[in-house]
Amino acid sequence: MTQVSRAKLPVDDLPESQIAVFRDGITGAEHAALIVGAFGGEPPLVRLHSECLTGDVFGSLKCDCGPQLKAALDIIGAAGGGVLLYLRQEGRGIGLGNKIRAYALQDRGLDTVDANRRLGFGDDERDYGIAAAMLRELGIDKVRLLTNNPNKMAGLEGEGVTVTERVAHHMPTNPHNADYIATKKARSGHLD
Ligand SMILES: Nc1nc2c(ncn2[C@@H]2O[C@H](COP(=O)(O)OP(=O)(O)OP(=O)(O)O)[C@@H](O)[C@H]2O)c(=O)[nH]1
Ligand SMILES: [Zn+2]
Q1: MF terms per GO, please (predicted)?
Q2: Could you tell me the residue range of the domain that residue 49 belongs to?
Q3: Strand arrangement, sheet containing 81-87
Q4: Predicted TM-score (pTM) above 0.90
Q5: What is the predicted ipTM?
Q6: Which secondary structure element, helix H or strand E, spans residue 74, and what is its range?
Q7: Which CATH number is 40's domain given?
Q8: Could you tell me if 37 and 11 are in contact, meaning their C-beta atoms sit under 8 angstroms apart?
């Protein structure tokens, strides 16, 4: 994993920010870090955001990714600084085409976990080694992590990044994503 490039990136409503791009030497995927404002002293607020084209770009109501992305930037901006890693782990690591295959199975009544299994995938194919490597490259070894997902905390800790605090990151539900969010709690161990 190497840093490819870094430049200033002015973003609406955020303090002065930079974007740094990293390339995974094995998969070739390019992951991005948005480094917002200034931080120092206490560990920075960090959000690991897994790519979700449908939620992040199109405003899909089937998940909570779009609102989570916006809220994370709002919270980091209000705190004066922090880092958002935009990880190219679409569909919890199965890719866009397969995620939409899973959606088609969900249209027929399967939940998110069973749809993944029916397609021959694990419940969640993500790995947080890349995220930990990106943080290390940025000189960050302790974080306050915005998440409800205990696997993200364990994944970072397992790679030597200390999570000093979990900051819950819940969004209001809508009729289309209520089951998806309930499934995250019931079957994937997501925290309140
Ligand atoms: N395979 C699959 N992936 C999905 C589905 N819905 C959303 N995703 C992907 O799930 C990822 C977001 O992960 P979540 O588990 O919802 O939340 P999280 O980010 O791990 O956890 P938090 O940090 O608490 O938000 C994105 O990559 C989405 O594309 C689905 O039904 N099936
Ligand atoms: Zn999503």
Answers
A1: GTP binding; GTP cyclohydrolase II activity; zinc ion binding
A2: 2-89+126-188
A3: 2-8, 17-23, 30-37, 81-87, 45-50, 142-146, 162-167
A4: yes
A5: 0.96
A6: helix 65-78
A7: 3.40.50.10990
A8: no
